[in-house]
Design brief:
This protein is of the alpha/beta class. The protein is built from 25 helices and 22 strands. The chain has a 7-stranded mixed β-sheet with strand order 6-7-4-3-2-5-8. Helix 15 links the parallel strand 14 and strand 15. The longest helix is centred in the first third of the chain and has 33 residues. It is globular. Bound molecules: adenosine-5'-diphosphate (ADP) and magnesium ion. The site of magnesium ion has 3 residues, from helix 12.
Amino acid sequence: MDVMHTAIEYLKGVGPERSRLLKEELNIQTYQDLLHFFPNRYIDRSKFYPINQLPNTSAEFQIKGIVTSIDFIKQKRGKRMVANFQDETGNMQLVWFRGYQWIKEGLKINQPYVIFGRINWFNGQASMPHPEMELESIFKQGLKAVFYPIYRSTEKLINKGVSQRVVQKLVANLLEKEPDLSETLPPYLLNHFKLISKKEALHQVHYPDNQNTLARAQARLKFEEFFYMQLQLILKNHQRKQKIKGHSFAEVGPVFKDFFKNYLPFTLTGAQKRVIKEIRTDLGSGRQMNRLLQGDVGSGKTIVALLSMLIAIDNDFQASLVAPTEILAQQHFQSLSTLLKGTDVQCALLTGSSTKKERIVIHEELEKGSLAILIGTHAIFEEKVQFKNLGLAIIDEQHRFGVAQRSKLWHKNKIPPHVLVMTATPIPRTLAMSIYGDLDSSVIDSLPPGRKPIKTLHRFDNNRLNVFAFIKEQIKLGRQVYIVYPLIQESETLDYKDLMDGYQSISRDFPKPKYQISIVHGKMKSDDKAYEMERFVKGKTQIMIATTVIEVGVNVSNASVMVIESAERFGLSQLHQLRGRVGRGSDQSYCILMSGSKLSEEGKTRLQTMVKTNDGFEIAEVDLRLRGPGNLMGTQQSGVLELKIADVIKDSSLLKVARDTAQQIIKKDPDFTGQEHQVIKRTLSSLKIDSNIWNFIS
Ligand code: ADP
Ligand code: MG
């Protein structure tokens, strides 16, 4: 067996207890895992921080000084030990809450120590709880390398004595064994990109000689990581196209043509036409389509979905459209029914609240094939729902569905249906490359003509009266208004109180009968919700007060004002989604972001970004920079979060190079038969690869 796969337990200094901890806390199980556990940062071992220059942040520092005295201080439970520690510039405290008896016995007063740890600040006084410390004389003996790697750690590891020092030691022990660190990239790539060898990179990344060698080590390891990530994604797409056959929709027939000529209510935009062509090409290719359709709110995805479904119907197939919520499914049903009025195409709605009677009819017509289009919620995924011949599955706002749920759709026909995933949440290009590197993608990048860009304003809470006056003006003009409140799970009770308080205050300022108000929130029964929505949609109420249930899809073109309360508490993409609820008609629309006067830097950036731009892609880029990839949709499944050293945001240009390289290689030598590619074949087979072909689909 490969030495690198040896269990970490057998490494000098580990043993069963530590190996369990390393596995639980850091997922380190083998030699290989430890070597690929890269430092977060480095500190220069030859440099010490003067106490009077410690910055007021909670970071880790290395300091040299002496302990002058030790005290015990009583606290609520037990006591703590406090040592006064000083250098030439000042003094600070070292603090222990546990194990102090043992530490006290070993501590040498007035002898130079090197300490390392996290600084806390309290009342202008710096302290370091549970420092790692070593007498300077001993520290000097251990000073082999200048740079000291600092690794990710956890509270538990520190409490159990697995300090930075211990991890450093373990890595050093492992490197000393001179393990066989075989190369994982073909020599011609190393030459071409001037990359250092794997072996050198691993040594240097843990114990760099200097800044320069460190940078080269990092570059080499990042490239490798991106390269294999992209290679796997592109291979997946390649293999899927070979392995999964698709229904061939050979012709665009009478149903499509009739609709296009006689029923299409507007002229398609250039972007819509282009996207339909892309879809059309996929559907006719004989391979299963697996396409992501991105288009900002209001860009006109619905008509693209419908025209694609008509192509399926022309080829004797059925189509389905799945939405994440009942309200959305209903809206889709309404707009598709309206569009299809007068044609022979049958469509039906299936949701959790469909009656038994309705279901029986739907099931029957679906199996017979007389029902061409089924629109619904996840109720469509149920086993009982069987199609005669499902050829196209469209999924709206896909991030609300899990992979497992979606895969149920693929099994509704012998050959899986074509899949079109629609999303109004733009995905930044860099991220799209890493998450959906295996999907084909289409983008509707322009809005239908005649739209006036939404004007976005930021107002503080103390300006509320002006905002109310503005709302009254708009209502006078016959427009409708949304007022949205945040609803965050952790503070649900408080949030409901805010919503109800808001409702009461607005009811006072907008009295009946002149003004009518709808309210919709998650705690209402779905009948009541539907009733309130309906009143607003029909124009019977002028104001809709809601939590974020209206976030996706709701379409009332007469609504021209979106007021978002406590806007600083919403994420950027959510704000953008909410804003997309207005500006759907030809009137000038407004989005008013209300906030308190105290804003965090990040909150300020979010609101400023919203005021500055309406472009969903630009907003998505800012969001990615602010929050990192971890919180964005789709990243959980994608593996970008498992990247050990590369960073899709900071290293995006390297990502592009790695992707292009991977693409070229697969184009030239998809089975890696070339001698120079044996190393790739070997490396790929040692990676854990998900071989479930169904996961290959979206
Ligand atoms: P979304 O992409 O958010 O789902 P919709 O498909 O709901 O957008 O379209 C938004 C609005 O724009 C709808 O009222 C729709 O009828 C209208 N629309 C779509 N395409 C066009 C077009 N090419 N010209 C004019 N109006 C359009
Ligand atoms: Mg839509």
